[in-house]
Amino acid sequence: MDETEFDIPAAMAESVRSREGAWALVRGFAAYWGEPLGPDDGFTDAELDAAELRLGLRLPAALREAYRLFGRRADLTSSQDVLLTPAELYVLDGALVYRAENQGCAHWGVLLDDLGREDPPTVGRLDLADKSQERWEPWEESFSTAAAAMALMEKLLEDHELTDFLELEDELPLGLRELPALGRNFRWHQGSEAMVGVAEGAWAVARARTPQALEALYEAVPGEWSGE
Question: What is the pTM of this model?
Answer without folding.
Answer: 0.93
